[in-house]
Amino acid sequence: MSGRAGHPPEPVTGAGPLAGTSDLDLLRAHVAGDRDAFTELFHRHRDRLWAVALRTVGDREEAADALQDALLSAHRAAARFRGDSAVTTWLHRIVVNACLDRIRRRQTHATVPLPDGVHGDGESGRHTGGVEPAAPTHDHDTALVVRQALAQLPAEQRAALVLVDVQGYPVAEVARILGVAEGTVKSRCARGRARLAGLLGHLRTGSDETADVRPVTGGNPRPPEGVGSTSGWSRRDASQEDT
User: Fold this and answer.
1) What is d(CA 213, CA 203) in angstroms, rounded to the nearest whole number?
2) How far apart, in whole angstroms, are the C-alpha atoms of residue 89 and residue 175?
3) Widest CA span of the chain, in angstroms?
C-alpha cells in the first residue's frame, strides 16, 4: 500500500471475486486472514479518502503521508471495529484524524501550507491520475486560491468545511466522522464560511475576470454514494476502539 511522494498509495486493481462483497464483510474477511480483502476495501473508497485528505491537509505530499498513516492504522485496528457505524464512517474518521494530527504538528511552524500542486521551488506538482481532472487555467487558479484560504482556517473548521461543503457529506454523517455533535459541525462550518467570505471576497467583488466564479462553499444536500451510517459514534479515535 505504499505510495510515491505526493501520491496516494496505489491499490491492486481489478474486479476480483470480492468486488460484490459488502464493506463490513470485507473488513471481517481481512480480520479472518484474507490477504486481498483490505486491498479491495481500500480500492473501493480510495478516491473519496484521498480527496478528503488532500483538501484537509492542503498539500499533496503531506496528504499522501496522512492517508498512508491512516490506512496502516485501519489495517491494524480492524479487529477492534465493533460495527457501531458504517465502515466508510470509520475509515473517514481515521483519515481525518491523521490529517488533523499532521496539521497540528505543522502549526508549530509559522508557515502557511502551499496550495495543492505547488512545491517550494514554484514548479507545479505531479497530478494523481484520475483523482482530480485537469481544469481550465482560470478555474485552476481559483481553486488554488480557495485551497490557500482553506489552509488558513483552524484545523477543525477546515475539516468540517471540507466534508460538508466540498465533499457534500450530510451534517449528521460528518458529526459521526468527527465524533462531535451535529450542532458543533454546523457551528464550525458557519465560522469557517464567515472567515472564508472575508478571505475570498475579491472573487466576487474583484475584476470582471472573476465575477462569474460560483460560490465555493455552497454545500451539497445529497449524500455521497455509499455513505450512510445510522448509528452514533464516540469521540474516541477510531483506531483505538475496544473490542
Assistant:
1) 7
2) 10
3) 60
Query: Angle CA(58)–CA(130)–CA(139) in degrees, nearest 5?
Result: 55
Nearest to 103 by CA among 54, 144, 176: 54
Cell 473501493 appears where? 44
173, three cell numbers: 454523517
pLDDT tens across 69-104, in order? 999 999 999 999 988 889 999 999 999 999 999 988
- DSSP class of residue 103? H
Query: What does the block give as the cell for 241?
Result: 476502539
pTM score of the predicted model = 0.64
pLDDT by residue (tens digit) across 221-241? Answer: 444 444 433 333 333 344 444
User: DSSP letter at 79?
Assistant: G
Lookup result for grid cell 501550507: 113
Contact of 148 with 115, CB cutoff 8 Å: yes
Q: How far apart are CA 29 and CA 25, in angstroms?
A: 6
